[in-house]
């Protein structure tokens, strides 16, 4: 009996010693005596998922209440099946998506890898169906691992305790997240590291930093973000989950209007871009037609509009003699012939003048006839 107790004691000491050694191993990163949990930033290697998706992001159109595709992942199922930006998803697996919430749409799109997701697409006033095979989407796996990283299932010390570094883990106490390099942490978006020693994860919020995943930059209040010019936030339960191009939005302070194409602006009426390749600065330009009122143009003073000058077209004046002109010439020539004959008594002068008078008389008659028949 004593020998059995001694043997069991020796086995227990060996097991505890082995577990303590494993707990301090740089490869496993676990702690505890009879139960093991990963250190911050690590998770169990065998935690994985068979959930797949289509590789697309969407927004819900405010007018139609249908989801509209905002982007497709390169090489993903959506791109492979020809889905494009601004395609409307009007049905998923035969069910109308009108007025669905974002979560309902996400739940319908996600599913087991290798299964089919049937989408009915509306594009350019045409409806067609697309059968997409769900594939492995990296961010879905990452989300599953991230959501379980700090509350993992405990493993007894004699189990296989291999763990892996999980890039993207958000530290539960500091404003940092796990970087791609193992055991390395970086500041969360909007923050900068201020710690001067190893393991010091002190951070500070900094204004004007670009967001790595959204078209936005940090505001002067901690945790607040401002959408880039031309963009608006996509929100869910009051939280911003992304940004999308805000087509048609006016920016009075800049005299700009967001066009239908992302990243492109139109100038306010009356304004032009002096150097559009380098800046979005605009300048008031006189003489431009108002697109909202074609009857007025921009004046010399900024913001001043004036009515367009009205030009009346008058009938062109002709220098060609009229029938009256020919008649007057004929009468004058005949009178001159009679005067010449009386004065000089020379018939040849009066004959030439009378001949000229007759020609003008004929021309007058022709002109008069044409005038009457017009």
In short:
By secondary structure, the protein is an alpha+beta fold. It contains 6 helices and 29 strands.
How would you describe this protein?
With 374 residues, the protein is of the alpha+beta class. Helix content is 25%, strand content 28%. It has helices at residues 2-23, 77-80, 102-109, 138-148, 323-344, 347-373; strands at residues 30-31, 35-38, 42-44, 51-52, 56-60, 67-72, 88-92, 95-96, 111-112, 116-123, 126-133, 155-156, 163-165, 176-178, 185-187, 191-193, 203-205, 216-218, 225-227, 231-236, 239-245, 250-251, 256-258, 265-267, 271-272, 283-284, 289-290, 293-298, 305-307. The N and C termini lie far apart (141 Å).
Give the key terms.
374 residues, alpha+beta, four-stranded antiparallel beta sheet, three-stranded antiparallel beta sheet, 29 strands, 25% helix, elongated
Radius of gyration: 44 Å
Strands side by side in the biggest sheet: 8-7-10-11
Distance between the termini: 141 Å
Q: How many beta strands in the DSSP annotation?
A: 29
Largest sheet: 4 strands, antiparallel
Mean pLDDT: 78
Low-confidence stretches: 23-28, 30-35, 154-159
Alpha-beta classification: alpha+beta
Relative strand content: 25-35%
The residue fraction in helices comes out at: 25-40%
Could you say which overall geometry the principal axes of the C-alpha atoms support?
elongated
Number of helices: 6
Write the layout of secondary structure elements.
Elements: H1 2-23, E1 30-31, E2 35-38, E3 42-44, E4 51-52, E5 56-60, E6 67-72, H2 77-80, E7 88-92, E8 95-96, H3 102-109, E9 111-112, E10 116-123, E11 126-133, H4 138-148, E12 155-156, E13 163-165, E14 176-178, E15 185-187, E16 191-193, E17 203-205, E18 216-218, E19 225-227, E20 231-236, E21 239-245, E22 250-251, E23 256-258, E24 265-267, E25 271-272, E26 283-284, E27 289-290, E28 293-298, E29 305-307, H5 323-344, H6 347-373
Antiparallel strand pairs: 1-2, 2-12, 3-13, 4-9, 5-6, 7-8, 7-10, 10-11, 14-15, 16-17, 18-19, 20-21, 22-23, 23-24, 25-26, 27-28, 28-29
Helix pairs in contact: 5-6
């Amino acid at each position: 009996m004593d020998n059995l107790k001694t043997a069991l004691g020796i086995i227990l000491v060996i097991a505890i010693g082995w577990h303590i050694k494993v707990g301090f191993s740089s490869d496993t990163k676990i702690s505890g005596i009879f139960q093991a949990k990963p250190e911050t930033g690590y998770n169990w290697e065998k935690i994985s998922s068979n959930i797949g998706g289509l590789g697309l992001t969407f927004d819900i159109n405010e007018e139609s209440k249908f989801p509209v595709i905002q982007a497709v992942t390169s090489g993903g199922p959506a791109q492979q099946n020809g889905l494009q930006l601004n395609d409307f998803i009007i049905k998923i697996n035969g069910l109308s998506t009108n007025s669905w919430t974002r979560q309902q749409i996400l739940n319908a799109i996600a599913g087991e890898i290798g299964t089919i997701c049937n989408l009915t697409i509306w594009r350019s006033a045409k409806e067609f169906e697309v059968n997409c095979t769900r594939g492995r989407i990296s961010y879905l796996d990452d989300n599953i691992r991230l959501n379980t990283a700090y509350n993992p299932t405990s493993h007894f010390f004699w189990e296989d305790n291999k763990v892996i570094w999980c890039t993207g883990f958000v530290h539960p106490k500091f404003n940092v997240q796990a970087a791609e390099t193992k055991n390395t942490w970086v500041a969360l978006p909007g923050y900068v590291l201020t710690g001067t020693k190893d393991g010091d994860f002190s951070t500070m919020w900094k204004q004007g930093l670009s967001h790595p995943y959204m078209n936005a930059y940090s505001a002067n209040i901690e945790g607040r973000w401002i959408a880039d010019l031309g963009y608006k936030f996509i929100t869910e339960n009051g939280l911003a989950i992304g940004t999308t191009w805000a087509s048609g939005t006016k920016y009075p302070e800049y005299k700009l209007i967001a066009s239908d194409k992302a990243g492109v602006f139109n100038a306010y009426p009356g304004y032009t871009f002096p150097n559009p390749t380098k800046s979005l600065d605009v300048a008031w330009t006189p003489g431009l037609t108002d697109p909202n009122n074609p009857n007025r143009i921009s004046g010399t003073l900024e913001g001043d509009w004036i009515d367009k000058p009205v030009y009346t077209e008058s009938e062109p004046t002709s220098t060609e003699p009229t029938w009256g002109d020919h008649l007057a010439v004929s009468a004058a020539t005949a009178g001159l012939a009679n005067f010449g004959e009386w004065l000089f008594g020379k018939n040849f002068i009066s004959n030439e003048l009378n001949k000229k008078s007759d020609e003008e008389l004929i021309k007058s008659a022709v002109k008069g006839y044409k005038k009457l028949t017009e």
